[in-house]
């Protein structure tokens, strides 16, 4: 970080910058804390139930750092699953998302990882995940298109085949 401070023409010994490299290191340790955790472990703490109807949690806020520029991307996640005799405590899905987002990421991978972890940990019949996010690498540099949102999706099981609940999931995510 000291080299970056020098490369942009600043003095790393200036009073306001002396502790900046340490503060940035501490910040990255916090922002990348998900590297040390497995989201399947938090999701596995569910409970038995005979429900076969889709469970959908929408508008879950998240933020992550783009692995290409280490700039934030942030937005909302929508997650639905079809239980196979096991329900997750609903906060577990939000915690799994946070664990996966606290890594150097790309949105496409984050979407897949959340779908796969949910499917595997819950042994769900199907999973659908949609992430909508604004990327500061697109908003504040390069193309400079603030307000643009990237939408990614990952579907597994009956959601992927379109046979069970896909239309219902999309309608509920869109608020219809």
Can you characterise this structure?
The chain is an alpha+beta fold. The protein has one domain: 2-Layer Sandwich (GTP Cyclohydrolase I, domain 2). Helix content is 38%, strand content 26%. The protein is built from eight helices and seven strands, in the order αααββββαβαβαβαα. The chain has helices at residues 2-7, 20-31, 39-43, 90-101, 107-122, 136-139, 158-161, 166-173; strands at 47-48, 55-66, 72-82, 86-87, 104-105, 126-135, 150-156. It has a five-stranded mixed sheet. β2 and β3 form a beta hairpin. α4 packs antiparallel against α5 (107-122). The longest helix has 16 residues, at 107-122. The radius of gyration is 19 Å and the shape is elongated. 30% of the residues are buried.
Keywords:
GTP Cyclohydrolase I, domain 2, five-stranded mixed β-sheet, alpha+beta, 176 residues, 7 strands
